[in-house]
Amino acid sequence: xxxxxxxxxxxxxxxxxxxxxLLIVVxxxxxxxxxxxxxxxxxxxxxxxSWIVTAYTLAFGGFLIPGGRxxxxxxxxxxxxxGVAVFGVASLVGGAAETPLTxxxxxxxxxxxxxxxxxxxxxxxxxxxxxxxxxxxxLGVWAAVTAAGTALGSVLGGVLVEALSWRWxxxxxxxxxxxxxxxxxxxxxxxAAVSTGRGDLPxxxxxxxxxxxxxxxxxxxxxxxxLDVRTLAGLVLAAGLLAAFVVVQRRTADRLIPPELLRNxxxxxxxxxxxxxxxxxxxxxxxxxxxxxxxxxAGPIAVGLAFVPMALAITIAAQVSARYADRVASGRLAxxxxxxxxxGMALLGRLGPESxxxxxxxxxxxxxxxxxxxxxVPLTSAAVAGAGQAHAGVASALFNSGQQIGGAxxxxxxxxxxxxxxxxxxxxxxxxxxxxxxxxxxxxxxxxALAAAVLAATRIVAVKESI
Length: 467
Description:
Radius of gyration: 21 Å
Distance between the termini: 25 Å
Strand content: under 5%
Number of strands: 0
Oligomer: single chain
CATH class of the largest domain: Mainly Alpha
Membrane topology: Multi-pass membrane protein
Protein name: EmrB/QacA subfamily drug resistance transporter
Largest sheet: none
Main location: membrane
Structural class: mainly alpha
Keywords: Cell membrane, Membrane, Transmembrane, Transmembrane helix, Transport
CATH topology of the largest domain: Growth Hormone, Chain: A
Order of helices and strands: HHHHHHHHHHHHHHHHHHHH
Helix content: over 70%
Number of domains: 3
Organism: Kribbella sandramycini
């Protein structure tokens, strides 16, 4: 009876924590559908409009590592609840915004809340499910929620904008946040601070500023180009701040990133593979969405629905991967998943104007989805297995940061390559030129995923017994 009670309480806690993760993923995409109505309603200029997305991305990507350290130091349950509450208040304020500045600031605060709650939530999952099949199943659920949220954001955003107004793409978070907080207080176990020390404020400031500058520079490449002063200034500032972070880390005893994490080759390899997956995932969603909307004329809801089969494939593959993770070495499982992603991306490189969803897109999306789902559980386990309970939050943050940076860097490079390929086409204005540019980007992403498969197979070792 006690074992069943523990399982029930663990499942309830997982549902709450996964709800927090769902908020983060959904809000990364839900506002994209509402950009037009927001522009018309609040008077955004074309230059200002992108900041609705960028403000969230900058705050989330830049503050993740300090957010993970905060969770380790002050208690993950407390920090998780605080992050969810901040996210909810920012959603309420953003939905009521009457000026562009108010909405952009609210989105940035949303990103800060997400950066705090994300590593705290995953750290709590690892506390509630410390090892074995329970942990693997929980990580499978985590992968499913992440995949579902990506597709759900576009679909839900389109429905809310058409049925109500753009404000509800933000206000929809408020009742969800209230439920997470109220239920979470009852079912999420209390967690004491597991990391001590005075804190590394200079390290937190330099890494946050450096990552924000890097993400800003990379997300602007598609619009401004690599040689624009804004891109160059962002890259120079990022390099300077991240170099300062390295110097600070060498001189302080209480480091923001514990050195033992960076010495663990399985942890580092998992983070690098996660970065490579960020390149593939962000590129896939970006270019496939463009293909469906611009070449096939699909609306926002239809685009979101097109990714539902892929989300289901990720969900099923993650559960199967979790079930067999005790029989197959983590590195091999992650490598097999990365190889499937590489094959899927290579097949997407053959897309043309005449390609159909059922004949060309759906099979490759399913293949890539199976690969992503199969790799997620062993990758996440490897990324946190060497951290120990004291550093699970910052280890989770490093893994998430790698995916965010990989996605931003990948999109910057892939969109540049795509544009160059289109310009070199005999008829740059044609649909054939456009799809040729996207096809080259998919092939490059396939090479990155293939390299990730090799890295996973050779470097992620001796982790099976830790999960």
